[in-house]
Design brief:
The chain has 117 residues and is mainly beta. It contains no helices and eleven strands. A hairpin with a 6-residue loop joins strand 4 and strand 5 (46-51). The mean pLDDT is 97.
Length: 117
């Protein structure tokens, strides 16, 4: 059974930082691209960032220069470093994985990030 468990969310002041983690079990993460999405209250879920199985990263314009994705295939984990957080970053952040050259994909349950003074 494949499981994705996000952690690291919380309440932080504007300008602060958080590091989100996505722990994956049941599959070998090396065979998957990993993405982070977020969903703010009353808004649709939006793509934030992706790291491919070849460690190529892409970011949404709204987070470019502030967020950084990384992965540790040995630990079957992925990470999202959030710096210089803004109130508009408040959302539930979700980890998503998609197998390379396949339709197999999985979602985590999400972790809440709240940016407020």
């Amino acid at each position: 059974q494949v499981q994705l468990v996000e952690s690291g969310g919380g309440l932080v002041q504007p300008g602060g930082s958080l590091r989100l983690s996505c722990a994956v079990s049941g599959i070998a993460l090396i065979n998957y691209h990993v993405s982070w999405y977020r969903q703010a209250p009353r808004k649709q879920r939006e793509w934030v960032a992706t790291i491919t199985n070849a460690d190529v990263t892409n970011y949404a314009d709204s987070v470019k220069g502030r967020f950084t994705m990384s992965r540790d295939n040995d630990k079957n984990m992925a990470f999202l470093q959030l710096n210089n957080l803004r109130p508009e970053d408040t959302a539930v952040f979700y980890c998503y994985i998609k197998r390379v050259l396949s339709a197999d994909d999985y979602w985590g349950q999400g972790t809440q990030v709240t940016v407020s003074s």
